[in-house]
Specification:
The protein starts with a helix and ends with a helix. The chain contains 3 helices and 2 strands. The chain has 93 residues and is mainly alpha-helical. It has a domain of 47 residues. The relative contact order is 0.10.
């Protein structure tokens, strides 16, 4: 990427993720005038934090009510979670 910047193939770069994190302080892209770099937080906004909080609250509320939470990342465990939740609901009834 540095070579592309210095050769003119790229006129600018925006980076949020580095191959090695944190990058070395003497990395050639650090401080380059055509580079905008963040510390892996470019997507963190007040709106994104509010949405994540809302999704977490919804997931906890569903689980507390004995229902499988939405947006499960590992779908293979859905049946396991459903079974555990139904067992807990029967135990507390």
């Amino acid at each position: 990427m540095f070579a592309a910047l210095t050769s003119g193939k790229l006129s600018g770069v925006g980076l949020d993720v580095w191959e090695q994190e944190p990058p070395e302080t003497d990395h050639p892209l650090q401080g380059h005038p055509a580079v905008i770099a963040t510390s892996h937080i470019a997507g963190v906004t007040s709106e994104s934090r509010a949405r994540v909080t809302q999704m977490a609250t919804e997931a906890f509320a569903k689980a507390a009510a004995g229902r499988v939470p939405p947006r499960l990342l590992i779908l293979e465990v859905r049946d396991v979670i459903a079974k555990r939740l139904s067992t807990r609901v029967r135990e507390t009834s």
